[in-house]
Design brief:
With 435 residues, this protein is of the alpha+beta class. The chain folds into 4 domains: 99 residues, no CATH class; 89 residues, PAS domain (Beta-Lactamase, 2-Layer Sandwich); 71 residues, Orthogonal Bundle (Helix Hairpins), CATH 1.10.287; 154 residues, Histidine kinase-like ATPase, C-terminal domain (Heat Shock Protein 90), CATH 3.30.565.10. The chain is 53% helix and 19% strand. The strands form 3 sheets. It has a 5-stranded antiparallel beta sheet, sandwiched between helices. Strand 4 and strand 5 form a beta hairpin. The longest helix has 37 residues. It is elongated and about 155 Å long. It binds adenosine-5'-diphosphate (ADP).
C-alpha cells in the first residue's frame, strides 16, 4: 500500500472516530452512533464502487471517469490512465496489422492462411481471383472441400512441401498456378499461389521450337545421308582421295540423325506427365532383347554381359519408353567399358518396389559430375563422348522416362573401377505374378 493511500485511510478512520465520539458525547449513545457512522462509511464506499462499475460498463472512447473524492478519486484516475495506455498500444498493433493486411491484399500472388485443421482463416484479393474463394462465405471452410483436384489433395495431405505443385486454376483452365505451402506455428499453413501462365507459355514455345526444328531437319538430313550411302555403295568408282571424307560425312550424318531422334523423343516425353500406356510390361523379356542388342553393339570388343531377371515382376507403363531408357543405360555401359569388360544387368523386387541395376567395370565417373549427369548435353569429357558417337541426351531421356514411371535414378561410380546405375520403381508401378 503506498503512503498516500495509507494516509487517506488513517485520516478517514480518525475523522470518523472523532465525529462518532463527539456525537456520542452529545447524545450519550456511543454504540448507536458508532454503528450508524460505520454504516454510513460503508454505504459511501459502495456508492463509489457502483459509480466505478457504471463508468467501466458504459464508457465510450476516451470518456473521463466520474469525479471522485479522496481515495476513490485516485482509483478512478489510475484506472483511466491504464485504460488509455492499453488503448494506445492496441491502436499501434492494429495499425501494424492493417498495414500488413493492406500490403498482402495488394500482392498479385495469392496468400492464404489456414489453421491447424486446414480450415481457411484469411486470404487476399488475388486468392479470390485465382482460386475463386468468396468472402465471407468460405471463411472457416476446409480448403480441400474447395480445391477438389485429386493432385492437390494428395499433395496437401502428404505434408511434403519441399517442391511446389503446379496445377491449372479451378476457376480458369487456361491459368497455370504454382502452389507453395509453408507450415508454421502450431501446424498452421501459409500458402502462396503464383500465376505462372506466362512462364509455362514460354516453356511451351521453347519445347515446340526444338521439336519443330528437329522435325524440319530430318528430311534434308535423310536426303544427304541417302546420297552418301549410294556414293559409298560404289566404292570402286570413288576417287580414293575422297573416300575418307565421304565416310566421315556419313558417320557425322548418322550422329546427327541420332541427335534429332533423341531430341524428338525428349519433346514427346515432355508433352505429357504420364505415358498413355499403362499395361504391365514383361521386363525380363525386354531386358533379354536389350542384352542381345548390347552384345551385337559390343561385337569385336567382346564384353561379358550377364542378366539376372525376376520373371514374376512386371512394370506398369510404356514398353517403348522403358526399352529406350533401359537400353540407354546398357548401351552406355558397353560404350564406356573397355574391351572384354564385364556388364551385369539385374532386375529384382523387394518390399520397397522393383529395381533395375546396370553395373559395369568401365571408366567410372568422378563424383563432381554425378549430380549434373542427367542434364541435356552434359558430358564428362567431350572427347570421350564424340569417340563413342554419343549425343549427350541418353541420360536425360532416362531421367524423363523414369519420372513418368514415378521412379528414381541412383548413380554410384568409382573412377577407373566402374559404375552402377540403379532405377528404383515404387510398388505402385509393380505388378507381381504369383510364383
Ligand atoms: P552420351 O550420349 O554422351 O553417352 P549420356 O547422357 O548417355 O550421353 O551420358 C552422359 C555422360 O555420362 C557421357 O558422356 C559419359 O561421359 C557419362 N556416362 C554415362 N554412362 C556411363 C558409364 N556407364 N560409365 C562411364 N561414364 C558414363
Amino acid at each position: 500500500m503506498n503512503q498516500d493511500l495509507q494516509g487517506h485511510l488513517i485520516r478517514h478512520a480518525l475523522l470518523l472516530a472523532s465525529a462518532c465520539l463527539l456525537l456520542g458525547l452529545i447524545t450519550g449513545e456511543y454504540a448507536w452512533v458508532l454503528v450508524i457512522g460505520l454504516a454510513g462509511y460503508v454505504g459511501w464506499h459502495l456508492q463509489q464502487l457502483r459509480r466505478l462499475h457504471k463508468w467501466l460498463r458504459t464508457r465510450r472512447g476516451d470518456e473521463p471517469p466520474p469525479d471522485g473524492y479522496g481515495l476513490w478519486g485516485e482509483v478512478f484516475d489510475s484506472i483511466h490512465h491504464l485504460l488509455r495506455r492499453d488503448q494506445k498500444v492496441r491502436g499501434r498493433l492494429q495499425a501494424v496489422i492493417d498495414r500488413v493486411q493492406e500490403s498482402t491484399a495488394a500482392l498479385k500472388d495469392a496468400v492464404i492462411m489456414l489453421d491447424r485443421d486446414g480450415n481457411l482463416e484469411w486470404w487476399n484479393i488475388a486468392a479470390e481471383k485465382l482460386l475463386g474463394l468468396k468472402t465471407p462465405q468460405d471463411s472457416g471452410q476446409q480448403l480441400t472441400h474447395l480445391m477438389r483436384d485429386p493432385r492437390f489433395i494428395e499433395y496437401f495431405e502428404n505434408h511434403n512441401y519441399s517442391e511446389p505443385l503446379e496445377l491449372p486454376s479451378p476457376v480458369n483452365n487456361r491459368l497455370r498456378l504454382q502452389f507453395h505451402i509453408t507450415q508454421y506455428g502450431d501446424r498452421e499453413h501459409l500458402m502462396l499461389i503464383r500465376d505462372i501462365t506466362r512462364l509455362c507459355q514460354l516453356e511451351q514455345m521453347r519445347k515446340d521450337f526444338v521439336a519443330n526444328v528437329s522435325h524440319e531437319l530430318r528430311t534434308p538430313l535423310t536426303v544427304i545421308t541417302g546420297y552418301l550411302e549410294t556414293l559409298l555403295d560404289n566404292v570402286e568408282a570413288i576417287n580414293p582421295r575422297w573416300l575418307r571424307a565421304l565416310q566421315q560425312m556419313q558417320q557425322q550424318g548418322w550422329r546427327m540423325q541420332n541427335l534429332l531422334n533423341d531430341l524428338l523423343l525428349l519433346a514427346k516425353l515432355e508433352a505429357t506427365d504420364y505415358p498413355s500406356d499403362n499395361q504391365p510390361v514383361a521386363v525380363d523379356l525386354l531386358l533379354l532383347s536389350i542384352q542381345n542388342d548390347a552384345q551385337a553393339l559390343s561385337g569385336e570388343r567382346r564384353h561379358r554381359i550377364t542378366l539376372q531377371a525376376d520373371a514374376h515382376l512386371r512394370l506398369k507403363g510404356s514398353e517403348a519408353e522403358l526399352r529406350s531408357a533401359f537400353s540407354n543405360l546398357v548401351f552406355n555401359a558397353v560404350k564406356y567399358t573397355p574391351d572384354e569388360g564385364e556388364i551385369c544387368v539385374r532386375w529384382w523386387g523387394d518390399e520397397q518396389g522393383a529395381h533395375l541395376s546396370v553395373e559395369d567395370t568401365g571408366l567410372g565417373i568422378e563424383a563432381k559430375h554425378l549430380p549434373r549427369l542427367t542434364e541435356r548435353f552434359y558430358r564428362v569429357d567431350s572427347s570421350r563422348a564424340s569417340n563413342t558417337g554419343g549425343t549427350g541426351l541418353g541420360l536425360a531421356i532416362v531421367k524423363h522416362v523414369l519420372l513418368r514411371h514415378r521412379a528414381d535414378l541412383n548413380i554410384v561410380s568409382n573412377l577407373g573401377k566402374g559404375s552402377t546405375f540403379t532405377c528404383h520403381f515404387p510398388n505402385l508401378q509393380v505388378v507381381r505374378r504369383s510364383q
